[in-house]
Amino acid sequence: MTQYVQLVKRNLLMYLRDKGVIFFSLLSMLVVLVLMIFFLGDININALTDALAMLPGRNAAEDEANAFLLVLAWTIGGIVPINSVMVTLSSYSSMIKDKNSKRSDAIYTSPVKRGVIALAYITSTCMSAMIICILTFTVAEFYFVFRGAHFLSALSHLKIFSMIIVSSFSYSAIMYLFATLVKTESAWSGFGTVIGALVGFFGGVYLPIGQLSPILQNVVKCTPVIYSTVMFRNIICEDMMNVLFEGVPSEISSVYGETMGINISLFDTAISPPVCCGILLFTGALCLVFGVLVMNSRRKKGAK
């Protein structure tokens, strides 16, 4: 246990002390924020307020203020899972560096079981993602309240923190599988560039999933990222959805939720946040098993 704790601490500090790695792990989030501030945010707000203006008895100024808060909540629900993806990816750079610098040789020849070493990498990566995601959500919520919203309820906070744990574990396991397959730092950096470019698309952040073609929607639904964003948005946007769509036919709010990826259906069945959590856990567990099998296969072949 002592060796495991020391390895976790060592890997965690390697990530947190590397400011460059932390910056690049947050780069996708920063890109999303820039796009929302200067381009996508106004488009989403205007589209929503124009639609509501067609209904009788609406207060245009109030709708615009509430639409802004809803789009802000929608954005927060997208950047938190994006961070869980990118932080776990960046955190495994220490594992790749260990391979290339031959430090892994010293680690593997020490009296520590390979399973403990692998678990230490996964645990430290999961903890890194949890720390960054919790900090991101905390700062985002305070800004959310500063702009006129209310703090989420205690139950909502409990759900969100639980979902952060689930996302952090799932993507730690998924990225561990990829990290076992990659041998060089340059390859891992290239992989990270590709994922950083695609994660906003697959998460329905750059473009809401409802605005994609049916074929692309099905492609997006085959990735775990969209289920992360849906479960976060479902909780974070709930209060503002109730405020903005008060007195509006439920069909309208339902269509908006489906279009913006606040709700999602699979095989014509609505998927709830607990089901999204289950999909993430299953995907993470499956990738973890494959990752362990890859490591065991390389061990038998004498690869480190």
How would you describe this protein?
Helix 2 crosses helix 4 and helix 4 packs antiparallel against helix 11. The protein is built from 14 helices and 2 strands. With 304 residues, it is mostly helical. Strand 1 and strand 2 form a beta hairpin. It has one domain. The model has no long low-confidence stretch (mean pLDDT 87). Strands 1-2 form a two-stranded antiparallel sheet.
Please specify the SSE layout and strand pairing.
Layout: H1 2-16, H2 19-25, H3 27-53, H4 60-91, H5 93-100, H6 103-109, H7 114-146, H8 154-181, H9 185-202, H10 214-220, H11 225-236, H12 238-244, H13 250-260, E1 264-266, E2 269-271, H14 273-300
Antiparallel strand pairs: 1-2
Keyword list:
mainly alpha; about 300 residues; two-stranded antiparallel ribbon; 2 strands
